[in-house]
Amino acid sequence: xxxxxxxxxxxxxxxxxxxxxxxxxxxxxxxxxxxxxxxxxxxxxxxxxxxxxxxxxxxxxxxxxxxxxxxxxxxxxxxxxxxxxxxxxxxxxxxxxxxxxxxxxxxxxxxxxxxxxxxxxxxxxxxxxxxxxxxxxxxxxxxxxxxxxxx
Length: 151
Known about the structure:
Elements: E1 5-9, E2 15-17, H1 20-28, E3 33-38, E4 44-48, H2 50-61, H3 68-78, E5 82-85, E6 91-93, H4 96-101, E7 107-112, E8 117-120, H5 122-138
Antiparallel strand pairs: 1-7, 2-6, 3-4, 3-5, 4-8, 7-8
């Protein structure tokens, strides 16, 4: 899983090193890269393994092909997604469009989200994290453990 938060900086050529634990998880899934797109929930970049993008594609494809919301999801996620391969040093080159969306100039945070991760400008993430913690505390009773039956 993608856990924890790591800070890295863009190098002079516009590349950034993806945290080793994140690369290791992706490698164990059989991927040498990550699919990124601008979040439509936050000022961040969503980063997903290929299989997660395939699942969201299946969910979009399951919608009526003539429904507006199918186009909304496809446009917001799929048309904005880019497959970024790791170089030999484990770096990716984020596009100007992605960096601009997340307001990243030099330093960025890689934020683990379990099956996915996000890339944030550090000050924006700190603001988000404070709000998220408050909301998580208010809604903590809604997080339930899945009951497993012993057979």
